[in-house]
Structure formats: structure tokens, C-alpha cells
Amino acid sequence: DEAVFLRKKITLLRAFSLLIGSMVGSGIFISPKGVLKNSGSVGFSLVVWFACGILSMFGALCYAELGTRITKSGGHYIYILETLGPLPGFLFLWAEFFAIRPANSAVVSLAFGRYMLEPFFAPCAAPVPAVKLVSLLGYYTVLTLNSWSVTWSARLQTALSFVKLLALALIIVPGMMLLAQGHTKNFHDAFDRQSLVLDKLPLAFYAGMFAYSGWFQASFVREELVRPERNIPLAVIVSVITVIVGYMLTNVSYYTVLGTQDVLASPAVAVSFVQRAFKSLISVVPILVALSCFGTMNGGIFTFSRTLFVASREGQWPPLFSMIHIRRHTPLPAVMLMFPLVTAMVCIGDIYHLLNFFSFSRWLFIGLATLGLIVHRHRHPELHSPFKVPLFVPVSFTIICLFTVAMSFYSDPVNISIGCTMVLSGFPVYYLIIHRQMSNHLLWIKLSSFFSHSDYLTHKLQLLLEVVQQEVKTY
């Protein structure tokens, strides 16, 4: 009885919660080990954490400006598509679907499973099959919720954001208390240059940037934001500053209580911290950490489904995935599409190999998106943007991203080569299917119409899922 389209239900508070909930997840609880391992010392690892925070702020400011210039949802994909063209846009979509997003979701899901089970098996490690089973159950729960209701997904994200900040506080407070009492022995000789290996630094940055990743999530749901030209910059700035302060204090607390060897040996740093510093909360903090990961899974599904939705609407993905449930007003097909790939990666993957595997592709395309901002400014100097950052911000961010991507080939050539191959494999697909269809605009319109309305399988899936095309333009 009413028009079917994605409603504007994301207020400033929900945008802030989405960003906090996406950034504060598994990263701060698993990445300290990766940052320390690849930076070599406590001091250099803290420098990496702070540098990653500043770099994230630069990227977030660039995306805030892109979000006020380009009014469509879709995040990285739509920014690359609109500024650099259809080929880079499709290559990002290809890598995002087959490598970046499923690997990222698998990492967060595995962290959720590990922390959820850790209190029940301590001091022993939780069995790997049990971790993977719980990880999948958590992921499927979030998948179901996002298919059911946008409102309830947003409410869950808001509630879990407060849980995440509470989890950080329970780590920061005892650590700061011990530091104030003079427990500084783990910071002696903090900048030991003998253990610093320069070609490993890109992997340290990948681990740190993974912990901060999520600052771009508001751009994925731009069409569903209330007053986006005001709320995107405001939510981005406040949330990133909050997370930088929280992460620095959390890492100082870790190192106050745990030595470098303890951090490197721990499969779950937050659990090891609580075992050493705050035994009365031994069963509470891991559960809070697991809920933090749960919120990150929720935010990831919520935003990536919009990328597939927009890509389908732009003609670079099958038409079924730009359809919306007639009663729930959720992009149901796009939400459900990640189910098989994430399941496979959780079953066969390891957290740290997956982390390096998807980080190469992610930061390559984020660098290209901010390069696109520079190109867009040059092409459209007449375009008024309500939010504008100084030019050195996108220039420096782009250079650092692309330099780190290039350096990572020396640091982890196997996983990075796999990620590169995944990106390059999109070339033949684009030229054989997408480019050929879009070069003949009339043919593409006919094909889109055919696949949307006449194709037998698409029609049956529409009936099964109860979905139709969006009826109201929201951008």
C-alpha cells in the first residue's frame, strides 16, 4: 500500500553509533599483537597506533567531503565510479565481493567466536572447531537481523556502541591505575631500534588501520542519513577523535600490565590483560569484547549490502540485488549474498593471514577513492561543497596509502600477490560482460529490462524473497 524504498532512518546519534560500532570491534583486541610483531618494540608500536589514527582522520575527512559532493550511497564504490570511471569502480566491486569484505567479516567473526568461548576454556585455548561454529552462529544472527529490520539493526548498533566504550573503559581504568602507581618497567627501552625491521612496517600499519577501519561507514548509507551534509562531517570528526584517544589509552594499559612477550604469545590480548590485572572481571570483559565484535559484524553487513544495492542500480551487478523487501524495506538479496563466501572463509581461514590478504586491496582502493576527490575537484571547480578539507589532506593520504600498498609486496609477497591477482581477475570480466553491454546503451537497457522482469530465475527469486525494485529516487 506504500512506496517501496530505503527510508531516511539514520540520525546523527545512529551515524555516530555506526562509526563507533564499526571501528571499535575486534581490531583493538587482536591487532596489538600484529602491530607489535611488525613494528618491533613498544615505543614504535605506539607511534604506529597514533599515526594510524591521524591517517584515519585524514581519510575520514576526505570521505566526509566526498559524501557532501556525491549524494549516492555506496561508499568506496560509488566514489571511485563517479570520479575515476566504471572500470576502477567495477574492479573495486569485484575485489570487495570476492576478497575484501568476506575476509574482513571472517576476521571479525573469528574474533567474536574466540572471545565468546575464551572464559569457558581458560587457561587453555578454545578448540578451533568450536570457535568457528560460534563465529558462524554469530554471523548468521546478524545476517538475519539485517534482513528483518533497518530500525532494529540501527538500534542494536547504538546499544552495542555503548558496550564497546564500556569494554575499553574496563581495560583503560585498571591500566592507568597501575601506571599511576609506578608500573613502568615494560616501557624501559621502549624504542629499541635493533628489533625494528623497516620492510615489516606496512604490515604493522595494516594491523593498526584494520583496528581503525570503519571511519568510512557513514558514506555507505548516505541516502538513508538525515541531513547528511551536516551529520556526515560531524559524526566522522567526533567518532574518530573518540577512537584515537580510546585506542592510545588502551594500548598503554596493555603494555603497563603485559610485557612484549606476553602480548606476542597471547591469542586474545584482552583476555590475557584481564587475567593479569583484573581477575574479578575474567568472565565479563571477554563477553564485552565479543559483543563489540558482534556490533562490528552488524555494521559491516548493514553497510556492504548498500554497496551491492547501488552497484546493481548502476548496472554493474545483477538487477536482483537492487531490490527491496516489500514490507521490511530492507535490501534483502544484497544482505544475503555474502552468506556463502563468509562461511567458507571462516571455515578455512586464519585471522592474521586473512588480515594481510584483504588489507592490500582495501587500502589500494581507499587510496584511489581519495585520489578521485582530487580529480573531482579539478573537473568540477564550480561545484559548491558544504564541507571542504585542505588539499594537502587528500594528497598526503593518497600518497601514504599507495606507498604502503607498494611496500607490502616486500613484507608479505604471498598473501599480497593473491590479493593482487583477485583484483586483476576482474579485468576480463569487465571487458567481456560489463563494458560490452554498457558500450551499447540501448542493448543494456533491453538486457536490464529482460533480466529484471522476464528472466525466469530472477522472477522466481523475486516471488520467493518478496522483493521489488526501488520506487522512489532517494539521491
UniProtKB/TrEMBL annotation:
One of the record's GO cellular component terms: membrane
Subcellular location: Membrane
Chain segments annotated as transmembrane: 12-30, 42-64, 76-100, 120-142, 162-183, 203-221, 233-257, 277-297, 332-354, 360-377, 389-410, 416-434
Membrane topology per record: Multi-pass membrane protein
Keywords: Membrane, Transmembrane, Transmembrane helix
Gene3D superfamilies, sorted: Amino acid/polyamine transporter I
Example GO molecular function: L-amino acid transmembrane transporter activity
The protein, known as: XCT protein
Annotated source species: Ceuthmochares aereus
